[in-house]
Amino acid sequence: MNRPDTDNHETILNGISVSPGICIGKAYLVDKEGVDVVRQYPILKSQVKKEIKRFKAAVKKSKDALRDIIEKTPEDFRQQTSILETQEVLLKDKMLYGKTIDTIENESVNAEWALKKVVAEVKSIFQNMTDPYLQERAADIDHLYDHIMRNLVGANQVNIDQIDKRVILVAHDLSPAETSQIRLERIKGFVTDKGGKASHTGIIARALEIPAVLGLDNATAMIRNEDVIIVDGTAGTIIIAPSEQTLVKYGERSMRYEQHKAAITRKSRMPAETTDGHRLMVLGNIALPEEVVSVINYGADGIGLYRTEFQYMNRSDFPSEDELYDKYSDVIEVMGAKPVTIRTLDINGDKAVGPGKGPAEVNPALGLRGIRYCLQRPDVFQTQLRAILRAAVHGKVRIMFPMVSTVSEVLMSKKILNEVAESLDKDGIAFSSDIKIGVLIEVPSAAIMADKIAEEVDFFSVGTNDLIQYTLAIDRGNQQVSHLFRPLDPAILRLLRRITEVAAEKKIKVFICGEMAGYAIHAPILLGLGMDGFSMNPQSIPVVKEMIRSIKMEDTTPLVEEALKLASAEKVFEMLRETYGSILSEIDRTE
Ligand code: PEP
Ligand code: MG
User: Fold this and answer.
1) What's the gap in Å between 402 CA and the centre of ligand 2?
2) C-beta of 535 in contact with ligand 1 (< 6 A)
3) Count of CB atoms within 10 A of residue 228's CB?
4) Ligand 1 pocket: which of 197, 204, 307 to mutate (most atoms <8 Å of CB)?
5) Are 219 and 279 within one domain?
């Protein structure tokens, strides 16, 4: 592998800080080891046969793996395997298979190089086709390339779930579904080449409370298996082969971080009340039922966002009503009288995994995601809603619809919810109908139409991760533009102002559950805008509560007025730092 000599001197890489904390340990490369860096080397004529055999064996392995997945998929879900069947056909195809063999033979080169060359050619043929279906097959080619290449270079198709050492994961990319398989007793932290500021992968890292740095571009090329590395998740840096001195420095820093965290966590159960007596609800976001423990430990006033799609990932079938009922009931029972806000399935977008995976979308963030998917698959939606209504008898439940972009989606969703309630009633099954209904305001059109939507719901919850993505046109998962993902951008503040003003006028509650709420420095602005509650990843609760307890509510209204007059996120940030920066400690995340 071609990388600068990092054996004798430390190397620092800068990425995107997504989950705070420091960890020191040995690197474990989980995927694409060597796959991205394919070297060309000549082979002797006498070795050509052997090389072709090696290529054929790698293809056969991929073919067998695909067949196995197809055959193990239950009959009912066979339509979901059509992509795999296409890939199976492509594997036999003369273009890909035959041409690679010809290239090995004619050019006397290694199989990896021949495959890379042929794939580049074949891919561009597909990409230049006018038929959109055929264009999309380019993605299948990529997938196959990856699969065969892993077989060729002998890189493991690592199942994160099965890693049995205490390591720091180093990956090209980790999907939210893969990240949710991380076992805390084994993984100290992780770093990836790809990934943006508000990606779901980062969100899961925070929920797991392990340091993580994403978007490093070349981590997998620079770091080798077993290298000692330091992950500074707060600063967003990685240090490869640290010197003795650096190890000592980071050891101390890590200790200070843990001490500070412990100190503010001890105060976390105290209410979030400003110095002039304004009390705010601080809630937790969860994705996995087990995270309810952190929500309780950090003294949250309830769950403001339960991301339910993770129960649909890492599996090939849809969960049953009873399965979902059990999962929801567990959480609701533990929370007792505190509210649990269940967001209905927000599948696709960057979570296009599991049984809901349909045909590949060119632009998934704008595709069949969230409520759009549920309205197209009422059977899946009804099953989830039945489970929620049944589980709601155990506590205080709210339902929230994601990715709403029109009033009619709200009306259709409520209609299905009513029908589900009626059918449970008819079946004589216990359920609760005492449920507040809300929507996530996360698409600009929903913010613009907030006055009309407000007439149909009991509350708003602002999903700033997507609201920023769609308003500023910044892919939340793309490291190339992550520096432009600025929650304090005046365009965002103006939209937030509209949403909170509408909520006040229509007398409905408004919460914020995007990651913006989990940064202490944002709290004064969000208070001044009139948010009734903040919901965030549980590990941010202590810091944000601490900040709220240092703010005078009265000061926040003029602060917002001033912020709204500014022209850039940088200026708003500077203003906040000047006034509130001293409250933050060295280890609190800023932006
Ligand atoms: C959001 O978009 O801000 C949000 C809370 O939902 P998610 O991050 O799951 O898309
Ligand atoms: Mg969202």
Assistant:
1) 7
2) no
3) 15
4) 307
5) no
514 lines ligand 1 (CB under 6 A): yes
300 Cα–ligand 2 center, Å: 21
Regarding the beta carbon of 283 and ligand 1, being less than 6 Å apart is answered no
Query: Are 417 and 442 found together in one domain?
Result: yes
Tell me: pLDDT of 36 over 70. no
On the question of pLDDT at 386 being above 60, the answer is yes
305 lines ligand 1 (CB under 6 A): yes
Q: Give the burial class of 42: count Cβ atoms within 10 A of its Cβ; 0-12 exposed, 13-18 middle, 19 or more buried.
A: exposed
Relative to the CA of 515, which ligand 1 atom is closest? 3
Whether residue 483 lies in the annotated active site: no
By 3-state DSSP, what share of the chain in percent is helix, strand and coil, each rounded to 5? 55, 15, 30
Tell me the residues surrounding ligand 2 (ion) with CB < 5 Å: 442, 463, 466
- Give the domain extent around 169: 11-32+158-246
Q: Is the dihedral of CA 33, 35, 39, 40 positive or negative?
A: positive
State whether 215 and 279 are in the same domain.
Answer: no
pLDDT in tens, 81-137: 666 677 777 777 777 889 999 999 999 998 988 998 898 888 888 778 777 777 777
Which one is catalytic: 147, 200, 394, 522? 200
Structure tokens, 150? 């892993």
CA of 464 to the centre of ligand 1 (A): 7
Q: Give the residue from 121, 153, 185 where a domain finishes.
A: 153
251 domain residue, yes or no: no
Q: Would you give the end-to-end CA distance of the chain in angstroms? A: 35
| Percent over 70 (pLDDT), the chain | 91
Q: Are residues 241 and 359 in the same domain?
A: no
Each residue's pLDDT tens digit, 438-495: 999 999 999 999 999 999 999 999 999 999 999 999 999 898 999 999 999 999 999 9
Q: Report if residue 3 sits inside a domain.
A: no
* 402 Cα: distance to centroid of ligand 1 (angstroms): 8
> Quick one: which of 442, 435, 490 has its CA closest to 462?
442
Helix (H, G, I), strand (E, B) or coil at 238: strand
How many domains does the chain divide into? 3
Residue 260 among the catalytic residues: no
Q: Are residues 459 and 569 in the same domain?
A: yes
Q: Report how far ligand 2's centroid is from the alpha carbon of 548 (Å).
A: 25
Question: Does ligand 1 come within 6 angstroms of the Cβ of 489?
Answer: no
Task: Enumerate the H helices of 192-243 as residue ranges.
Answer: 200-208, 219-222
